[in-house]
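Quick review question:
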């Protein structure tokens, strides 16, 4: 795996896991359930996500848990293999690392807790968002978008 991808994946995984530990266990959101930080723009709302995005396919079965862990590992491995065959610029490698790190961090949650710890809730402009997410979700989204925009291989002499 490219060095930039490895570094950004490790940073994404560590930042997400540390944020979850601080919020869920450090300030005990798991028992408080809600904490208004900067309402309505930023709130902490505890949600254990047993499904995928927005709680889709939520179920608390052991089989589903390990299927979702396996899926995250397979996607991460597929991206790593793709990277070995596709040269990218700096932003492409970083984007891939964000996606891999976020996916592995959510998979780690599933392995340890049985579900993904979501706690960020943001609303704005009269729109009340009922969903919670975490930094890993943000890294996955940013990484996927980054790969769309930065997946072109660098040209000769390009310093992307």
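Suggested answer, residue by residue:
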């Amino acid at each position: 795996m490219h060095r930039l991808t490895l570094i950004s994946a490790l940073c994404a995984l560590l930042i997400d896991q540390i944020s979850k530990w601080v919020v869920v266990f450090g300030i005990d959101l798991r028992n408080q359930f809600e904490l208004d930080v900067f309402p309505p723009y930023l709130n902490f709302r505890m949600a254990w996500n047993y499904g995928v995005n927005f709680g889709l396919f939520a179920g608390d079965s052991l089989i589903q848990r390990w299927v979702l862990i396996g899926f995250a590992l397979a996607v991460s491995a597929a991206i790593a293999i793709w990277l070995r065959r596709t040269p990218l610029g700096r932003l492409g490698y970083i984007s891939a690392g964000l996606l891999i790190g976020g996916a592995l961090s959510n998979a780690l949650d599933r392995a340890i807790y049985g579900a993904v710890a979501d706690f960020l809730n943001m609303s704005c402009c009269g729109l009340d968002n009922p969903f919670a997410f975490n930094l890993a979700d943000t890294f996955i989204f940013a990484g996927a978008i980054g790969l769309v925009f930065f997946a072109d291989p660098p040209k000769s002499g390009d310093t992307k």
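Why it works: The chain has five helices and three strands. Strands lie at 34-38, 42-49, 116-121.
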